[in-house]
Amino acid sequence: MKDTIRIPLPPSRWILLIAIFGVVGGRLSVQAEIVGTAKQKNVPAHVESFLQASCIDCHDGPEGEAGFDLRRVLSDGIGPQETKLDPPWVKIIDRVAAGEMPPREADQPNGKDRNEFVSQTSQWLQKHQKQRNRTYGRVRARRLTRLQVERSLHDILGIDIPLAEKLPDEGRPRGFTTVAEYQTMSHHHLARHLAVVDDALDEAFHRALNPTEACDRD
């Protein structure tokens, strides 16, 4: 029985491989664990009371005026990690501060109540935005795209075989593939990533054991 010949990769390349597929994956795992235990931030009672008294009649449910569902906004509160729930609150604060909500033909809150609502709601929103940035950072950790995985493996292992097409389709939420907030990492993604790394390593070992074969790099 012949002994198997093993050609070790240079330590620097193993370090890069671990950095790309270990550290990034680890950060995403930690972030996912935090998100799993985080809860939506409920709306303070005084904020909800003002909106119920002054705004809910015109914006009650999906059929609300201008398509603005205030009941849904109150139910959602503020997200523990994602920022997609912030814009409705910014719009509410701006419209109330400008005197556009409630509309002029509707019953108006007195000036003191209006100013207190704007001030307290702004402080509540800013407090949770700052807390979110301290916990997760302004830029979220994200996984590599399919093309980035392929090019990273090409650079690390000195190969040029197609790999991106073997990874799951990413979709393009909001036209981009690099927005951490919309990326997913299921067991299927993980399995395909591991399979692609195996294919890349197989190709690297094949080339190491067959140095006379031509290898063209773009």
TrEMBL record:
Q: Which residues form the signal peptide?
A: none
* Annotated Polar residues bias: 117-126
Q: Which residues form the DUF1587 domain?
A: 142-205
Name this protein carries in UniProt:
DUF1587 domain-containing protein
Bias kind Basic residues: ranges? 127-136
Compositional bias, Basic and acidic residues, is annotated for 102-116
Q: What high-level taxonomic lineage is stated for the organism?
A: unclassified sequences, metagenomes, ecological metagenomes
Q: Which InterPro entries match?
A: Cyt_c_Planctomycete-type, DUF1587
Task: Provide the transmembrane region boundaries.
Answer: none
Limits of the Cytochrome C Planctomycete-type domain: 55-105
Region Disordered, as annotated, extends over 100-136
